[in-house]
Amino acid sequence: MIVLPACSDSAAGTTTTTPAPTTTTPAPTSTTTTTPATTTPTATPPSSTTSTTVPRAPAAPGSDSAISLIVDDATRVYRLVVPETLLDQHRKTQRIFDIIMASIAGISLLVGGIGIMNIMLVSVTERTREVGIRLAIGALEREVLGQFLVEAVVLSSFGGLLGIGLALVVSSVLTSLMNIPLVLELWVILLAFGFSAAVGVIFGYVPARRAARLDPIDALRHE
Q: pLDDT at residue 76 above 80?
């Protein structure tokens, strides 16, 4: 081990000790930078147990549809477009179809009534002598009138029942082929039967009145 002697100053006669250099390392200063928080809007899904319906928004000017939003319970949003123009056109088409069907039914009743009237006129002509005999032995006009009216109503009612049965068969076949339920209402069937009976009364009155007003003497001479 070597010991170095201290340096002495000859002029001043003092001893100078050189201190060891010290190095001071500054302590790191921590700086905190505050960044302002930014809020990002996030879509909150609707609850899985509720269904929310947004009110229907009015249609824009010149638009043919109204838009409504429906949020279902499966966190999905559906956009529904209601074509009001198409609905109005469908209503008009349905109205025209109803008018056409009513016209066809009216024409069918008119043609059927004319047919019944012709049949009853032929029946009165063929049974003129029989009517004359009834009138000659004391039958009243209203009795002869009621007889031919009953025959006309029976004839038209039979045709009505036949038409109702045919309509039920055709409706059953069509609904089974189209896989849709068949809905029957009693008042519709009764209304159809009433119309057929009314046709017999209306169009059978003229032949019945003609038979009731026959002269018994002329009727007995008829061959």
A: no
What does pLDDT average to over the chain? 74
- Alpha carbon distances (Å) from 138 to 104, 132, 135, 162, 207: 45, 10, 5, 38, 20
Residue 1 CB neighbours (<10 A): 2
Q: Which of 135, 130, 119 is nearest to 215 (CA)?
A: 135
CB-based contact 173:217 (threshold 8 Å): no
Tokens of 60: 């824009």
CA-based end-to-end distance of the chain: 177
Cα gap 171→182, rounded to integer Å: 7
Distance, in Å, from the CA atom of 122 to the CA atom of 115, rounded to the nearest integer, reads 11
E strand map for the chain: 52-53, 65-71, 77-83
User: What pLDDT, on the 0 to 100 scale, is given for residue 85?
Assistant: 77
Q: pTM higher than 0.85 for the full model?
A: no
Please compute the mean of the pLDDT values over residues 87-114 and round it to a whole number. Answer: 90
